[in-house]
Structure formats: structure tokens, C-alpha cells
Amino acid sequence: MRVGFIAYGYRGVVQIQQLTYFVAVARTRHFTRAAELTGVSQPSLSKQIRVLENSLGTPLFVRNRGAIELTSAGQALLPHAQRILIDVESAERTVHEVANLRRGRVRMGATPSLCEGLLPDALRRFHETYPDIDLEVQEAGSRVLTRELAQGRLDVALLIVPLHTDDPDIETTPILRERLVLASRTDSDLPERMDVGDLRDLPLVMFREGYDLRDVTLRACRAAGFEPRLAVEGGEMSAVLRFVEAGLGHAVVPSMVLASRPELQSTVLENPPLDRVIALAHRSSEALPLAARAFKAELLAHLKTFATGELGLV
């Protein structure tokens, strides 16, 4: 490593190793002991000290027989050299810790339905494996998350594909195909399976504008030849589920979000079956940070537990 250094009106280039030798001599006041301390030969150490002095344009030591003293320039340099060496050691330690995933940060985003269903257990697993990696989670729709990725404010995002963007820098890896079901109160008399066309006569709780599940539901109903009857609309995932629990209507939701909702039951939708593909996305123009790569690996391992009849790896 090389560090630019300005002293006494002369600009030279100082090497970290030269500062290491200088500080060792300043502490021991002896070239031979300093060489032993730093693990080099005494002639090599003396040569590097002379190179340092030539670079700075001034002597750093007064070399008397049997005594080594710092010059005024050496005294001025010493605290700065010590600070530089401390900073370098700290930087190396930090890099080493990050390289071994003892520290770091993952800035990730996920859609509200994934925050409700898949993400909590995935984050718990990752935190247990890497307890000192900081996790920052942003909950938003796929469009917002795609924009945040493009602007460099997220490392990775779990979102729904296909993306509504023409940005070529966003790379997506499909990881999970999830079945969509109709959520109803447990006291509902709906059958275990029904056609999409049967939604015609049911009051639906609908997500807000721009929500992926809203678009999927409306397209399916229109493909079946009808406009759905909306009892309530405009909510996020948690609000929609609470409205269904309150008996205001039914909602088309991902199957995984019902696992923690004992008051709700699911009805499988057929003719046609509804599903969606979840992808892991990041900027393709940048190398994925090490901590984010570790999260991706843990997530993929976690997803293997979801490969059931309603969820399948892509």
C-alpha cells in the first residue's frame, strides 16, 4: 500500500512499510532491535529509513555513536505515522471480518406479501448463521423495489416477475412459483376448489392500485368474462387479510400468507389455476456484495422447504 505524504514543502510518496520501520526505530531507539522487531535485516531496514528521509527531504534521526534520537522532523512525523499504521491495521481487520462474513450489511427489499409469508423465517435463518450482518428491509411493491435497485439503494430484492421496467441493468433470477388461492373466513361454506368464474358472485377485498395481486385478479376475472364485485379496495396485504377476517369479503392471495392466519381458510382456484413467479433481483452491472451473496445462498436453501403442492422451486 502506498500513501501520499506532504512534509516541509516537498511532496513524496511514502510506503506503509517505511512508516512501520520508522515507528519501530523511534520506539526502540536502535536500528538492530527495530529490525528484529519488524522481522527484516538491519541493512534492509536502514536502507528503507534512508529512502523515507530522502523522500521527505529531511533527516528523521540523529545517529550518534551508541544513541539514536529523533530530529524535530522525526518528532513531528511520529504521531502521524502511528495514526496511519493504526488506521491501516483497522482497515485490514475490517476487510478481513467482512471477507469472513463477521460484519457487513444487506439492504434488501420485498413485496408486502413476501414480508408477510416467506421473509420472516428466511431472515431468522440468515441471522442465526450470520448474527453480525446488519439487515435493512424495505417493504414495497415490485415497481418501487425495481426503481430502488436501479438507483443503487438496495442490494437485492424479492419481487414478482415479469418486471414492469426496461432497465437492462436489473438482473432477475426466478426462484419460486407460488399458487394463488382465495382467502375466506373459516366459517365460510366455500368448497375446497372452485373455478375462477365462480368469483363472479362473491364480494372481493381488492388490493390498491399498482399492486401485483390486484392486476392478476382483475386479469383473471376479465379473462373469465366478468368484472369482479369489489366490497373493499385500496389496502396492503396485512389490511386486506384483516378485512377478510372481519367478514367483509374474500381475497385472492398467495398461499403462504395464510400459514399464520388461523381464522382464514383457502380455496384452490382452477380453470385456470392462478400462480405467480417470485424472483431475486439485483443490478447486473455491479458485483453482488459478499453479504448479499450469502443471503442469496441462505434464501435458496430455505426455499427448498417450501417445495410443496402450492409452492415449487423454479
Key phrases:
D-Maltodextrin-Binding Protein, domain 2; two-stranded antiparallel sheet; Arc Repressor Mutant, subunit A; disordered N terminus; 3 domains; 314 residues; alpha/beta; nine-stranded mixed β-sheet
Task: Explain what this protein looks like in three dimensions.
Helix content is 39%, strand content 30%. It has helices at residues 16-28, 31-38, 42-56, 72-99, 112-116, 119-129, 142-150, 212-223, 237-245, 290-303, and strands at residues 2-7, 10-15, 61-64, 67-70, 104-110, 133-139, 156-161, 170-185, 193-195, 203-207, 229-235, 251-254, 264-270, 275-283, 311-313. The strands form 4 sheets. Strands 5, 6, 7, 8, 9, 12, 13, 14 and 15 form a 9-stranded mixed β-sheet that branches. Helix 1 packs across helix 4, helix 2 (31-38) crosses helix 3 (42-56) and helix 6 packs across helix 10 (290-303). The two termini are 46 Å apart.
